[in-house]
Amino acid sequence: MKNIILFDKPEVRGNLLPITFTRPIADIRIGITTIREKWQSYFHEDSFSYWTAEFLSPKFATNVTDDNYFIAGHIIPDKNLVNSIENLQPGEALQTPDGNNIIAFRGALNDFEQQNPSKTTCYESNYESINWLYDIFTKNDETLKEDFKAITANRKSQPISETNTIIGEQYFEDGTPKIFIEEGASVEGAFLNITKGPIYIGKDCEIMEGACIRAPFAACEHSVVNMGCKIYGATTLGPYCKVGGELNNVVMLGYSNKAHDGFLGNAVIGEWCNLGAGCSASNLKNDYTEIKLWNYPAHRFLRTGLQFCGLIMGDHSKAGVNSIFNTATVIGVGVNIHGTGFPRNFVPSFSEGSSAGFVDVSLTKFFAIAERAMARRNVTLTDADKEIFQNIFSFADNYK
To answer: Is the peptide bond prior to 159 cis by the omega test (within 30 degrees of 0)?
Structure first.
């Protein structure tokens, strides 16, 4: 059995804030599964842990042995890369062609920390990775398609109800289906367009009547698509999400709601977020110029090269009824937006307010809200969770 440790590169982790305030990089969902779950699908019987920011260790500990496989947590696995890692010898590192970055290393923790391999091998093949917040939605299309193939291979879907309208060929050229419905899911009276990819419906999901979905699309277990919802690919709903209105190329990590009318596009929404009725977020500037996005390590807005970028929202943040957001707005952890007008394009963690101004949110108030929200899904805010939020709160001023 291999002892696999998914490690965070500090500079990448910084560029992925606020999403990585509350999780290691490998726990980010892209496609259908998290990056960790993708690695686990290759290393079935092996042990997994994390090497991440110290303040996350109460929940995401590192399990160290004498012989470890350290793998960069921002890299999305493929069969060729996995084979190269499996062939590593003790003390050997797999590096990028420029020699500046370690993809994987086999050996002791001390040697890994000192970046001291006894042998290096250059990995010449292409691989996919997430390095910036917008990679999560811009790379969701191809990743979702690859995940669909892996998850549905040699498995049989539940039957598709005749109440649905299917647009496009229902099978790939190899004869495998483009729509896969897991056990317990309900899909009735929906319009499913699969001309541009597959649709995955997870266990116990509900797709209500009148929903219009364009592939590629994935709804993970217990997610709900409300009546008349309009979804464009590539969109992913993590576990226990509920959506309505209009979505275009959105990744919701899990346990978050946008249940009513309003638009959300080219966006990343963390866990335990709620967007109230009528909430909309712009994803395109009126002058069509290149979008700049707030970057936490740089303490400023950086060029993205993108024309489309919407809302980025950290865990446990909320937006009230009819809230509106400018293009490429970044919202931290534990933020409560309400009132009229556009808030500024960056709102620090543990803030409450509107375009008129913001005040700090106390941890006592934050914990009370979080506990109530999580209890609705029968999930408990643990002591380890609280310790992580206390740490985020303690250095929140450094990121304003």
So the answer is: no
**pLDDT, position 396:** 76
Report the distance separating Cα 224 and Cα 219, nearest Å. Answer: 8
What is the widest separation between alpha-carbon atoms in the chain? 62
User: What is the pairing mode between strands 102-107 and 92-95?
Assistant: antiparallel
Contact by Cβ (8 Å): 249, 137 = yes
Q: List Cβ<8 Å contacts ≥24 apart for 132-135.
A: 132/15, 132/16, 132/304, 133/15, 133/16, 133/19, 133/268, 133/293, 133/312, 133/330, 134/266, 134/293, 134/304, 134/306, 134/309, 135/30
Q: What is the pTM of this model?
A: 0.96
Dist CA 309 CA 140 (whole Å) = 14
Q: Are 180 and 153 in contact (CB under 8 A)?
A: no
For residues 178 and 168, the answer to whether their CB atoms sit within 8 Å is yes
Paired with 248 in beta bridges are 232, 265
DSSP for 67-92, please give it. Answer: SEEEEETTEEP-HHHHHHHHTPPTTE
The answer to whether 330 touches 17, Cβ cutoff 8 Å, is no
Type of residue at 152: T
CA–CA distance, 136 with 76 (Å, rounded to integer): 11
Bridge partner list, 274: 257, 318
**What DSSP string describes 6-46?**
EE--HHHHHHTTTGGGSS-GGG-B-SSSBHHHHHHHHSTTS
* Tens-digit pLDDT profile for residues 41-88: 999 877 999 999 999 998 999 999 999 999 999 999 999 999 999 999
| Regions of the chain where pLDDT drops below 70 | none
Tell me the torsion sign for CA atoms 109, 114, 116, 121: positive
